[in-house]
Amino acid sequence: MTASLPVPAPHAPSARAAAERLAGLAVPAGALGRLGELGTWLSAVQGQVPPRPLDDVRLVIFAGDHGVARHGVSAYPPEITAAMVRTFVAGRAGVNALAGAHGVRVRVLDLGVDDDLDGLPPEVGEHKVRRGSGAIHLEDALTAAETAQALAAGRRVAEREVADGAQLLLSGDMGIGNTTPAAALVAAGLGLGAGDVAEVAGRGTGVDDAGLARKREVLGAALERAGERAADPVETLTALGSADLAASVGYVVGAAEAGVPVLLDGLMSVACALTAERIAPGTAAWCVAGHRSPEPAQTLALARLGLDPLLDLGMRLGEGSGAVAAVPLLRSAVALLNDVALLSDLGDLVPTDA
Ligand SMILES: Cc1cc2ncn([C@H]3O[C@H](COP(=O)(O)O)[C@@H](O)[C@H]3O)c2cc1C
Ligand SMILES: O=C(O)c1cccnc1
Q1: Which residue, of 141, 177, 314, 320, has the fewest CB within 10 Å?
Q2: pLDDT-derived band of residue 1, with 50, 70 and 90 as boundaries?
């Protein structure tokens, strides 16, 4: 995948019909707030009014290591990445608990973990591109061929989930140090340069002031090194991304191309959606933002995509957790458009233009 074709827009007539149905429900005009808007969006992406129940919701976690993690940009050691992949498989991570509570299927894929992960089911490593991606302030994250491979893998993963019945896809991340390349993707997507890194650098897992200063330095050096290449989204992934982030980009493009909506998570998920929109314009219309992360780059990317997050709980876990936490809101929106009586069912009590 280099520059993809634009993605067709969700079904506008269904959006109009859903808005009409919403306006006719036995509730005061506008009383359902964001839930009403969500129901309208779900009708548009499904091409159906009222929208179908979301019975098959799936999260894919893209895991990988990042060379920058050895340069003091995270509060935790890189060995945590492989250990957490094992924890997802065992069903014991934070996101597994939420997914269990909300009926979301979870898969974790190793795109670039710096460990062979022996003993895990072979599907986990089926799309592996390499062991660890390059330290972006010193070298490219990937070769051009690896970027293409990771993008294609992510796209294939989405296509398979859709063929297998997924009605809503969520994207999650695991990789110590990944808030640094993700912030770089956002900077590149917004046309920001080495002088603007304070706007995109956040504390990630909770780095102290010295860690934040190192992160800014790493980001500045990385953007400087990438130079003009940051103007091209695929080159951005090669220079500043990673195998796991590139796959997550391909996944969002693949879902949008297949006409299946995507519920986004925190910084990594949204940085990848921003990059997906650069590669395949129109992708963002198939996305909804699950939550707001405290990472400043996530807020900047959401604003660029025109997305307003559903939740703002101060969560900064990643893994897809903020997306999973928002699933009940999407199901609530479906229930309202399906199950609420119409004002007209109440009799002649309300003037039709009320
Ligand atoms: C135990 C643990 C579980 C996690 N689950 C997600 N992350 C999150 O934190 C990391 C990003 O933050 P930074 O860039 O500061 O390293 C990623 O692995 C992300 O998925 C975790 C981090 C840790 C330590
Ligand atoms: O925004 C996120 O998802 C996030 C923030 C900090 C650490 N891990 C993930």
Answers
A1: 314
A2: very low
Out of 81, 174, 208, 215, give the residue to mutate to test ligand 1, the one with the largest number of ligand atoms within 8 Å of its CB: 174
Q: Which fold has domain 57-329?
A: Rossmann fold (3.40.50)
Contacts (Cβ under 8 Å, ≥6 apart) of 20? none
User: Domain extents for the chain?
Assistant: 57-329
d(CA 17, CA 104) in angstroms, rounded, equals: 29
Q: What atom in ligand 1 is closest to the CA of residue 83?
A: 1
Q: Which active-site residues does the annotation give? A: 319
pLDDT level of residue 22 (50, 70, 90 thresholds):
very high
Q: Which residues contact 113 (CB under 8 A, 6 or more apart)?
A: 63, 64, 65, 81, 82, 85, 128, 131, 132, 175
As for the ipTM of the complex, it is 0.99
Q: Does residue 205 line the site of ligand 1, with CB under 6 A?
A: yes
Among protein residues, the one with the nearest Cα to ligand 2's atom 7 is 204
Instruction: Name the nearest CA neighbour of 257 among 280, 227, 288, 291.
Output: 280
